[in-house]
Amino acid sequence: MTKERNNSITQLLNNSKNQIASRSWYVIHTKPSNEHRVETNLSNQEIEVFLPLLETFQYISGKIIPKIKPLFPNYLFAKLDIDVHYYKVKWTRGVSKILGLEVNRFQSLKK
Asked: What pLDDT is recorded for position 23?
């Protein structure tokens, strides 16, 4: 019985490694000013997300105020297995669309 259990544990580990290895980076187009919402929601779903930020300065009432804004407004990057995560991402609150997808074919960003 322990041999069968070890085999099933090994299979689970291999499946997890294969699923992680099959993930690619995609560009996620968000609804206006929803980058942080989408980042939080996807992270909560255990999807790796990258949102590059840029520190800018804004002149308000005679004072210069530092602000941190997304480097690419309305866009962020997510590493996902498109076959597994497509609907999770597509229907996440704040997501407009996943870029790089064609009608019957998926394309990922090259490393």
From this structure: 86
Domain edges within the chain: 23-99
| Angle at alpha carbon of residue 46, lines to 44 and 49, rounded to 5° | 90
Rounded Cα–Cα distance for residues 47 and 30 (Å): 16
1-30 pLDDT, tens digit per residue, is 566 655 665 555 555 545 556 889 999 999
The domain over range 23-99 is classified in CATH as 3.30.70.940: yes
Q: What is the pTM of this model?
A: 0.71
What is the per-residue pLDDT for 104?
45
Length of the chain: 111
Q: What are phi and psi of 53, to 5 degrees?
A: -115, 155
Both tokens of 41, joined, read 């929601």
Q: Please return the burial class of 64, using the count of CB atoms within 10 Å of its CB with bins 0-12, 13-18 and 19+.
A: exposed
Q: For residue 77, give the H/E element and its range.
A: strand 75-80
Sorted by sequence, the CB contacts under 8 Å of residue 64 that are 6+ apart come out as: 57, 58
